[in-house]
Each structure stands twice: as structure tokens, then as C-alpha cells.
Amino acid sequence: MAIKRLIYIIMCSTLFSIGVKASSPDQLGKITLRPYLFDNYGQQVNSALMTKLQQIATQNGLAGSGFDDRFIITTHLQPISIEKTNTAPSKTALRLSVVLYIGDGVSGTLFSTCEKEVRGVGNDETKAYLNAIRTISSSNPDIQTFVRRGCEQIVAYYDNISNDILTKANALAKSSKYDQAITLLLTIPSSCKAYEQAQDMIAEIGAPAIENDNLEILNKARALWSSSPTESGAAQVRSLLCDIKYPSTNVQTQTRELTTEMSAHLRQEQQNQWNMLMQESQNWHEREMKRIEGYNEREKARIESDRDQRVAAILGAAQVEAAWASRPVINYHINWW
Questions:
Q1: In what side-by-side order are the strands of the sheet with 109-122?
Q2: 145 and 267: one domain?
Q3: Are residues 60 and 198 in the same domain?
Q4: Domain count, the chain
Q5: Residue 7 lies in a domain
């Protein structure tokens, strides 16, 4: 468990370094609700509603962009009365029914509702709407209960389909579609029964993926050295080799062979300095491996470490368009009011 937590922290740190939006380092594995509006109440009112829905999600630890955006929190407004006050100058007084909804926006299944009546007064109707919306408290007990019921239904949803998710992820992995398989497994929240099994599958799937990535780095390093067998080229190769994560015995052997070959081509007066740099690189890898005692633990950490590379590749800012393509296209269909 300590190893999983270590890799989890590394993975989250990688996500934040590339600018992925998340509410906290514990975003992964948690249920998220996407604020969404189906009705158009005008730009100002829509903006206020989206802010309020976001506040409710944040208050309950459900904000952020998850690996499955099918679950939404939305609202529908119904005016009860709109009147002009007898004051000078006259203002608009509004009584408004606000109904909140949490559900599966893809299947149209409604999980939870909450209705609140609010009032607002303003110089015009828009200002009255805005002031009424501001009175909705995200910490209201009824709203808290509403969110809790919705989350319970989401957990039940994943508990019901978790076996299908695991089966599909396994099939994707066998087809070498590692990113898609891991993305699918990461949709299972930590509060679900199959969460630990999904994490174990991520570790298992990551084994060939991380080996392929490391070998790809080695191939790039060899090509770079072949095109530039100089001190400058050697420095660039060393920088590339530092990207290798938890190398297998095969990768370590090939890395050592490459660095030995490079050392043989460097001028004698630079040999000592180059050997020191190469030794630093090898020592770094050895220190990383020694942090986890025992062969089995090292192998598990090497496999699990793929999560930081796989997730970063999936959500990397430079690759976001291609990565999100592996996620299901979200088309919301509801009939809740």
C-alpha cells in the first residue's frame, strides 16, 4: 500500500506539472460531477448558475475533470411570481423555484433531486434572478443530502458495471491499447468495490507499456548518438536516458552497453568527466531501485510507475486533443423536467 501511495503521489505531481485541472492531489479515483445547463436563461444568469453548481460540487469534493464526465449536476428554474415593488424607484421582486438534479447525462437516469424556493429583488428582472441565485447555499443541509444521495447512486452504478469495465480493459490491453485500457480502469472511483482490482490491473497492464516506452527512449538515444558522436551529442543522449523509469534488467543492460560504446568514442582528456556523468546516471537508477527492497517489490513498483507516464501522456496539455479521443463522446440526453 505504501508503494501504491508513493507512485500515486508521483503520478499526481506529474499531472499538476503539465497543467491538468484538478481540485486536489486526491482527484484521481474520486467521483466528479460536471456542471451543465440545458436551458438558456441569458448570459449573466447562466454564468451565475454555473458558478453555483460548481460551488456545490466543490463544497462536496466533487469538482474537477474526471476520466468519466457522464455524471452531471444541473438545474431548472421556474418563476413562481414576478412583481414590481411599490418603492421609488420601482424594483423587480422575484419568487423562484430552483430544482437541482444529479444523474447520468448519457443514459438519462436521474439519481437525485432537490427543490429550493428563493427570492430576489433587483433593479430589473435579470438582477432579481442573480440576487435570488446568490441566496442558494452550497452548505444547506438539504443540498448536502441531495449530493450524498447522488453519489451513492453513482457508486452503485460502478459496482454494477465494474466487471464489464475490467473485462473490456483486459481486452484492450491484449490488443496493446494500453492508454485506452488504463483510461477505462481509472474511471472506477476509489469508493467502489472493484477499485483495488482495477489498480492492480493498471499495474499489470503497465508492465509491457513501460518496457516499450523505455526501449523507445533507448532507440532514440542510439539514433542521436549515431548522428552526433560528439561531446555535445553525448550530453543530449544522457539527458534522454534520464527519462527512463524503473528500468528492467534488459533495459539496464542495453543502457550500459550504449554508455560504454559512447565512452569509448570520447577523447581521452574528457574520459574521466564523461565517466563521472554516466556513473551519476547509473547511480540514479540504482538508487531508485534500492528504494524498494526485494525483487518482487521492485518489479511491482516498476510496473505501477507506468501510471504517472500513462496518465501524463493521456492528459498532457500538448496531447490533450488526441488523448481525449480515447474517451467516450459525451452526448447528454435527459428528460428530468
A1: 34-35, 71-84, 92-104, 109-122
A2: no
A3: no
A4: 2
A5: no
- Both 183 and 310 in a single domain? yes
Which residue segment(s) compose the domain that 105 sits in?
A: 31-160
Which amino acid is present at 328? P
- 55-102-68 Cα angle (round to 5): 85
Residue 186 or residue 325, greater confidence: 186
pLDDT tens across 20-57, in order?
333 333 455 678 899 999 999 999 999 999 999 999 99
Same structural domain for residues 210 and 291? Answer: yes
156 with 183, same domain: the answer is no
